[in-house]
Every structure is written in structure tokens, then in C-alpha cells.
Amino acid sequence: MTEFKSKAKRKIDLLILSDIHLGTFGCQAKELNKYLKSIEPKEVILNGDIIDIWQFSKRYWPKSHMKVVSQFFKWLSKGVRITYITGNHDEMLRKFEGFKVGNFEIQNKKVITIKGKKAWIFRGDIFDFAMQHSRWLTKVGAIGYDFLIVLNRVVNIFAQFLGKDRFSLSKRVKNSVKSAVKFINQFEETSTNIAADNGYDYVICGHIHHPEIKTYNTPKGSVVYLNSGDWVENLTSLEYHKGKWSIFHYHDHDFEYFDEPKTVDKNDLEYMSAESPKELYTNMLKEMMTKQ
User: What keywords tag this UniProt record (predicted)?
Assistant: First the structure.
């Protein structure tokens, strides 16, 4: 348990976040902000669906969402290396693969070496048949999922009022549906088999909102499968520090003593005035250029 009774920040060698879905009602941005301000990473990999362009609307861009973006830029200004791996909900960025400015880059996948072992980091939506062949159906599903998340937030407000822990309706639904469980298992097995075929020791994914660290034994050797989860239903990330991988799970009681700033930096106002996803990204890139 990590209670924040002091302002000391936890140091992390590598932080991997995915599926934040900024710009949607389901995004748990306030909780994510507390977490981000409590750590000090050396390197960050954002593994897709950070800003949900599918459902982005100027009508819904709260200050808490802007604070998440602002925190990433503060890390960049301090020399933290950040790689943005594109996802399906922010697919408009895929045409910018290879873009680099300072210590920020956009990639569709990434391979890193950790203590002599190769890690393949990629989004994972390439395994999603519905995404590839029935995009309209996937988007309808995303809207229904977002509605369930909103309903979940209302339920959790009452749960917290009654002194109960928060829980995820969508997670319970998925865990109770055999086809969903089967898809998760197939997703993990497919990614690890491909990783083994290409000589990778680790395969690190996002996309399916299911945090996991698991070792798979394949005909071509063992592969460690890792998934960073999400900040919609699980509130998780992957952390690597001093040679060890771990899944961080956010819990309200761990941050009872955390003092979150109530103001927004004046530089953030330019982002919040954006009228479209394109303008938002233009402002973000402009900010990166001025900070180098």
C-alpha cells in the first residue's frame, strides 16, 4: 500500500500506460492525475488510445483531462523520453509514424532491450477481426461501452457514499461472458506465439483493457506477456524498476493524503480552447517545439 503522506515521488525506470481514453466520460482522469504526480519515471511509453479521437468532442474536455496532457509535457520539459504508440481510437496519428522532436516520438510499434532481453511493444488491435473488417460495428460497440462506463460511475458514487469499494460493471460483464474470456486468451496466445517466432523475450500490449503479467511456454521458448490495462475500468499501468516488472493498481485509499492542485496552469488554456482534434494536436506539437 502506498499512502501519500509526504511529497516524495516514487522513482520508476520505465512506465507504460495505455487506453486512457481522454475526451470520454469513462476516463478516470482525476485518479490518473494523482498517480502521475506521485511518480518520477525515467522513460514513458504511451501504448495507444490516449486521446479518444473517435468520441472526441469540444463539449467534453474537462480540466482533469487537460492536466493529464499537461503532466506529459512537464515530463518532456524535464528530459523524460516519451514514445507515443498509436492505437485504433487515435489512429489519425498513424500517418505520423517516425515523427520525432526532442525526446518525444510517435511510433506504431517499438522494440527495446532490457538487461539483454528484447521486448516487443505494440498496440494489439491488429488481432481484432471486428476492428479490421467491421469498423462501423466496433464504433457502435464503443458507444455502448462508454454508456456502460457512465452508468458505472453513477453506481460507484453511491457505493463510495455507502463506504463500499468501487467496482467495474464492464469488467464483470466481460468476465462472465465466455466469448470475451476466450477472446482475451486467444489475444494473449497469438501475441506470445508471434513474439516467440521473432525471438522476443517480452511482448507488451494494451487494447483489451485486461492488465496481466504471465509467462507463456511456446514451441520456440518462453515469452513473458504483459498488458498495461487501462484507465477506464481497471486503473492500471505497467512499471519496470530495478529489474522487475509490476502492475500498478490504483486504489482510492492509497491516495487519501494526496493534495491535488485545484488550479490549471495558464499554458493549458490554449489546449482547452481547441475546437477540434486536429487543432488540439497542433497546439500540442507547437508546445513541444517551444520546450526544446
Answer: Cell inner membrane, Cell membrane, Hydrolase, Manganese, Membrane, Metal-binding
The C-alpha cell 469499494 sits at 165
170 alpha-carbon distance from chain centroid: 17
Judge whether 152 and 170 are in contact, CB under 8 Å. Answer: yes
Sheet holding 109-114, edge to edge: 109-114, 117-122, 202-205, 221-227, 212-218
Three cell numbers at 140? 457502435
Q: Residues 165-201: pLDDT tens digits?
A: 665 555 555 555 445 567 778 889 989 999 999 999 9
For a pLDDT cut of 70, what percent of the chain falls above it?
65
Q: What is the mean pLDDT of the chain?
A: 79
SS (H, E, C) the chain: CCCCCCCCCEEEEEEEECCCCECCCCCCHHHHHHHHHCEEEEEEEEECCCECCCCCECCECCHHHHHHHHHHHHHHHCCCEEEEECCCCCHHHHHHCCCEECCEEEECEEEEEECCEEEEEECCHHHCHHHHHCHHHHHHHHHHHHHHHHHHHHHHHHHHHCCCCCCCHHHHHHHHCHHHHHHHHHHHHHHHHHHHHCCCCEEEECCCCCCEEEEEEECCEEEEEEECCCCCCCCEEEEEECCEEEEEECCHHHHCCCCCCCCCCHHHHHHHCCCCHHHHHHHHHHHHHHHC
Task: Go through the domains of the chain in sequence order and give each one's CATH number.
Answer: 10-291 (3.60.21.10)
CA 276 to chain centre: 22
Cα 143 to Cα 234: distance, rounded to the nearest angstrom: 18
pLDDT tens-place string over residues 65-84: 989 999 999 999 999 999 99
